[in-house]
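Re-running the complex after MR caught last week's input typo. The corrected sequence lines follow. Everything else is unchanged.
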Amino acid sequence: MSERVLPFEQALEEVLTQARSGGSVRGVEVVELLAGAGRVLAAVVVADRDQPAFDRATRDGYAVRSGDVGKALRVAGSVRAGESWSGKALGEGEAIEIMTGAPLPVGADAVVMVEHTALAEETLRVEAGRSLRVGENVVPRGAETLAGNVVLPVGRSLGAAEISVAASCGLAKVQVFARPKVAIIATGDELVELDEPMEAWQIRNSNSYALAALVEAAGGVGLRLAIARDTLGELRAQVAEGREADLLLLSGGVSMGKYDLVEQVLREFRAEFFFTGALIQPGKPIVFGRLPSEKGWTYFFGLPGNPVSAQVCFALFVAPMLRALAGRTEIAPVFVEARLSEGVKGGARVTRFLPAELSGGWDGVGVRVVGWQGSGDVVANARGNGYVVLPAGVEHFPAGLTVRVLLR
Ligand code: AMP
Ligand code: MG
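Corrected-run output:
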């Protein structure tokens, strides 16, 4: 098969298309609610009762009839959160002291804030000139949701907000999708593992760790396979093992060098390639495709070996696929806009994704490219918190220009 090197947008579209059609989930698990944090819902969450389940006061004050505001009112009693007013319905000229979260007594139609009242000799008066709308400071029963309504859809990742909804519906356990298993193979004769002695010219295998961390953050389980040396034999053995995972990631060995054998080995396994490069920098040599495997197909990414390239390619292409395999419906990478706080030289013929530091404040979001020594510079990369996008063919990006930033 010939080479297929795509512009960034097209390469991303290719991944998203495959992810949406073929990025299927691997089963369902039931877990304790808190263990569901970061997991993806496999069943809708349905409200078990109206929310609120009663007309709920949102302020401390007095439950009244809104039309009674100008009158001297008699305080007939008090109701606090967790109680229900058991006396008779509130009549004209009456008020009932009420606390935030308590149910509105029958007969009342609004709550006046305690700050807006004065109580003297058992007579309550609302501050002169204040009016009160029907329903003011009250959330009516069912206004947030009605019993039986879907409050969280399938495919939603469970963060604190979603866990709060599930808890409010009484769910001690949630149904989530199984986490996809991601085989990670680092390739390279120069690599040593962290606990091995090394020579000055050797390189520690940091990619397997970075990729495993990224996999976990995107909802997968990272399986770090042994380093594959740049030989056909070792690569074959590792790919044979790795293709039985739900997703296969390789790092290194996809460039044009004499020892870059990954593509060749993937072809031996009858890989179908969707692209064999992207017009991006760093990350140009990335390959994406799928391999026949016992369960049908396994998607793979051959990532460049340079650590920053591998991490950029992960954020751009691997994370969306992984989110789909994890069952999420929102999978595309999220770009935000920010203003360049310093000018950047352009002139590249490919789209660049440079490590950058995004800083936010009331005045707006600024972004600054982190100085680096190229795509092997993990230290510079760690000074950033995202990647600024610099489109191809622009000679200069002046300070103050609005640019896109990929969050990570
Ligand atoms: P390659 O894409 O195989 O040509 O690798 C490019 C460069 O990336 C290598 O020369 C190494 O410096 C670096 N590299 C490759 N694999 C890893 C790895 N697993 N961990 C850290 N650096 C790596
Ligand atoms: Mg290599």
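None of the earlier attempt is carried over here. The domain at 56-139 is CATH 2.170.190.11 (Molybdopterin biosynthesis moeA protein; domain 3). The mean pLDDT is 97.
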